[in-house]
Amino acid sequence: MKMKIPIAMLGIVITGVVLTRWNTVGPAHTSVSSSPTAANNKPAHPAELTKPPSVSRRVRPNAEHEPAQLLARIQEALSSTNPDEREIILANLLPALVRADPLAAARFAETNDLGGTHDMILHRVAQIWAAQDTSAALDWATTLSNARERAEILTDVCLQIAESDPAEAVRTRSRHVTDGKPNAGLEALAQRWAEKDFSPALDWALSLDAGAQRDQLIARLAYVQSQTAPFDAAMLVVENVPEERAQTEAVITVLHQWALRDLAAAEKWVEGFPESDLRNRAVNELNGIARTHSEIRR
Fold it and tell me: Whole-angstrom Cα distance, residue 48 to residue 43?
């Protein structure tokens, strides 16, 4: 009897330990392994609470970037006397408007005259739109009713084309020159072409029908050539431009560039000129450059 009591008490103690162990370990293990819902419902990490919405979710556009709002801001800024406001227009607001609605930007540019900014805005819209969509900008340029503006904006668009393909820019601009008169825009584009690839540009110019436009184009190309081969440039003018005012101006332009690089060679060339107004102008040009050189050396 005396031995049964301690044994019974030992059994009670063991049973209690087992039950305690089962309550603290077993249920917790069971809840983790068999209750995924509870695991998924744990409190979010603070960083997760600040995550932005999914990119696939449709977000309402910023009202400030809507065409009507942009136009209102542009008009307000144009009315300001603060020069910084105009810089904001050119650098930020107009590009945003052209991206949002290029036709609205074009119509505004055509009619705007706030603060005497008509030409500035018109050219800026053309440049931005041409960089974004050359074909659409070109179509718009051809519809401008003002002849001067039409010519200038066509050139702006073609200058953008010239960034990647100057030959195509010249061909495109030449299609819109129909009166045979010298066109400064076409000449500027031809010069850009010659600066990148002289020979094909010269071949194109020489293939044109004789006239004032051809003479001016050759003079522009001769100026480009005078930077590296002044004698060839001089002969290009003498041989391909008639002995009229256009030739005289072209010769003086080439001679000036030549004399800046090699005054002695330029003087020697002029010595062979017959007595004429051209020779007199050439001598005066060389004398002026010689005086400048002498003053610089002092």
Answer: 10
User: How many other CB atoms are there within 10 angstroms of residue 250's CB atom?
Assistant: 26
What residues have CB less than 8 Å from 127, skipping those under 6 apart?
156, 160
The residue type at 179: D
pTM of the full structure: 0.71
pLDDT tens figures, 242-254: 988 889 999 999 9
Alpha-carbon gap, residue 286 to 256, rounded angstroms: 7
- Look at the block and give the residue holding tokens 């044994």: 7
CB-based contact 211:242 (threshold 8 Å): no
Instruction: List the structure tokens of 253.
Output: 């332009």
Which region, left, alpha or beta, applies to residue 197 given φ > 0 means left and ψ of -120 to 50 means alpha? beta
Q: pLDDT tens digits for 21-51?
A: 444 444 444 443 444 444 444 455 444 444 4
Give the pLDDT band of residue 181 (cuts 50, 70, 90).
Answer: confident
CA distances (Å), origin 172, targets 52, 167, 197, 201: 48, 9, 17, 14
